[in-house]
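Budget justification aside, the reviewers requested a transparent look at the raw inputs and outputs of the sequence design task funded under Objective 1. We therefore reproduce one unedited record. The lines immediately below are the structure tokens for a 243-residue chain.
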């Protein structure tokens, strides 16, 4: 069943209105008719089963048949922080992180980052990554669309990610604890997962993260590529708290 996302203001108790490109998609691409059913999700986590009552290119109206809490969301709000990788790897990470349950993806700079963000291109890149997250959320039946934020500095990332109930700093060096050993039985309310770029993190950065209260965790005996590591970590969290 087609899935669309609207603001809470567009969804009343008994009706909902889908506007913009999604309305045109319903009317033109999907060629839906009055009486067809769609699923509409809101930022507050509601999943609405709706029946179309009016179809126009700019706005489609629907009757709410039933409402429930979105079934596609993990029990913890997982925020992923990824040091800038080279090429288009960040697009892949955003798409797959959406499928694996991340609620936010934030790129950041660190010592070994090769591709540094160009300020004049950040707005367009952030907009494109958010579109990728939106399309992935529709495809995988998420209840909300994850947010991709503008990049942070390393210190800015530590300050923001460190306020989670569980802050994980994935590190390939010495002094780490295996990821499963730091996961509590009950899922924390919020989890931050920090992943490095192709070169990983420096020892100084790892020490700074440790002083900031992060748990330095290892992801096994093999060295994972920078686009694989975040997906592996998110998969471990999904296995621990969802399966």
């Amino acid at each position: 069943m087609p899935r669309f996302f609207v603001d809470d203001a567009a969804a009343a108790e008994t009706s909902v209105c889908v506007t913009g490109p999604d309305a045109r998609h319903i009317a033109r691409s999907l060629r839906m008719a009055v009486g067809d059913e769609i699923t509409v999700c809101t930022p507050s986590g509601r999943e609405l089963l709706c029946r179309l009552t009016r179809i126009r290119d700019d706005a489609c109206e629907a009757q709410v048949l039933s409402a429930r809490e979105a079934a596609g969301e993990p029990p913890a709000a997982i925020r992923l922080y990824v040091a800038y990788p080279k090429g288009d790897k960040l697009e892949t990470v955003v798409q797959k992180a959406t499928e694996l349950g991340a609620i936010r993806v934030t790129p950041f700079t660190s010592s070994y980052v090769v591709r540094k963000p160009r300020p004049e291109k950040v707005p367009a890149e952030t907009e494109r990554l958010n579109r990728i997250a939106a399309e992935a959320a529709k495809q995988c039946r998420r209840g909300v669309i994850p947010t991709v934020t503008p990049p942070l500095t390393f210190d800015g990332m530590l300050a923001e990610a460190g306020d989670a109930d569980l802050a994980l700093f994935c590190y390939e060096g010495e002094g780490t604890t295996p990821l499963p050993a730091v996961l509590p039985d009950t899922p924390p309310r919020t989890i931050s997962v920090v992943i490095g770029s192709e070169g990983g993190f420096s020892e100084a950065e790892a020490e700074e993260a440790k002083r900031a209260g992060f748990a330095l965790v290892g992801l096994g005996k093999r060295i994972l590529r920078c686009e694989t590591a975040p997906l592996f970590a998110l998969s471990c969290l999904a296995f621990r708290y969802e399966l």
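Residues 100 and 235 are 7 Å apart (CA to CA). The mean pLDDT is 95. Computational costs for records of this kind are itemized in the attached budget.
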